[in-house]
Design a protein that fits this description.
Elements (H helix, E strand, L loop, with lengths): L1 E8 L6 H4 L10 H5 L10 H4 L5 E4 L11 H9 L3 E4 L4 H9 L4 E3 L3 H4 L5 E5 L4 E4 L5 E3 L5 H9 L2 H8 L7
Parallel strand pairs: 1-2, 2-3, 3-4
Antiparallel strand pairs: 1-5, 5-6, 6-7
Length: 168
């Protein structure tokens, strides 16, 4: 996977309540959720994020509740990938299942700043500044996860594997 995007840097322990505050869960429409994405940390995020942008964060990204709406909000807002030192287990699984790449990097949050434009190359395991002067390594994704992401998420992958007779 190769992506180009603008970076948004957040710290450690970004939880699902700041990704999409619970008061907005009265409407599960992706556009509604996107309009409040990251509101708990950056009130301007939803207005300023652009399609293809990349979140870079510290440890334990997505902690808190198991709500899928956190991933839906980010994806619908235009976020193309999240790179963090570590992810809360359920958030990580929700991201992969919904087709939002979640990659681990031990140093990306130290190398890049909000507003930087980066090139993400998962095959080479690199996140590189557009001018090539700064780099951060990415842990490789397991093959089965690459397949889920390439299909657009778990449901599209399963649908693509179901034969017309309903058998897998």
């Amino acid at each position: 996977m190769k992506l180009r995007g603008r970076v948004w840097v957040f710290g450690d322990d970004v939880n699902t309540d700041v990704i999409i505050p619970g008061r907005y869960l009265d409407d599960y429409d992706p556009a509604h959720l996107a309009s409040h994405a990251m509101e708990g940390l950056d009130k301007g995020f939803a207005k300023n994020v652009r399609k293809g942008d990349i979140i870079v964060a510290g440890r334990n990204f997505g902690s808190g509740s198991s709500r899928e709406q956190a991933v839906i909000a980010l994806k619908a807002a235009g976020v193309s990938a999240i790179i963090a030192v570590s992810f809360a287990r359920i958030f990580y699984r929700n991201a992969i299942n919904l087709g939002l790449p979640a990659l681990v990097s031990m140093d990306a949050s130290l190398v890049f700043s909000t507003g930087d434009t980066v090139l993400l190359d998962s095959a080479q395991g690199l996140l590189t500044s557009e001018d090539g002067s700064r780099r951060a390594g990415l842990e490789p994704l397991p093959t089965h996860i690459e397949g889920i992401l390439a299909a657009g998420g778990l449901v599209p992958l399963v649908k693509s594997r179901v034969r017309t007779d309903g058998n897998v």
